[in-house]
Design the sequence.
């Protein structure tokens, strides 16, 4: 996927602030995100595929802090909506498309973050 046509979806200013620009620490948080969040998103898609929408909220909750730390505002909004709607058994018809939106955005973000780790960004 060509990520050069996409604006940068993440914002590392929070990580730069808390780690005072320590690139090694920032990279380790990015690496953790790349290892964990794709698995959460895959499990969320599995819940949608099984029509088990009430099981989405713990997965969304786990992904939320990682997404927030990387300044992924659009994705964070969708994750919070998935978490709340699943938890409160509301707007369930919207959840499959929200999960799809998160998956699509993640594909772009993963590529962009891998470029950061390889120094190509």
Sequence:
């Amino acid at each position: 996927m060509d990520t050069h046509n996409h604006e940068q979806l993440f914002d590392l200013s929070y990580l730069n602030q808390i780690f005072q620009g320590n690139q090694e620490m920032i990279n380790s948080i990015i690496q953790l995100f790349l290892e964990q969040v794709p698995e959460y998103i895959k499990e969320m898609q599995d819940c949608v595929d099984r029509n088990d929408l009430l099981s989405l909220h713990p997965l969304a909750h786990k992904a939320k802090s990682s997404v927030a730390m990387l300044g992924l505002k659009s994705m964070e909004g969708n994750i919070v909506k998935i978490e709340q709607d699943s938890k409160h058994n509301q707007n369930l018809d919207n959840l499959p498309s929200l999960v799809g939106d998160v998956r699509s955005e993640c594909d772009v973000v993963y590529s962009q973050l891998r470029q950061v780790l390889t120094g190509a960004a």
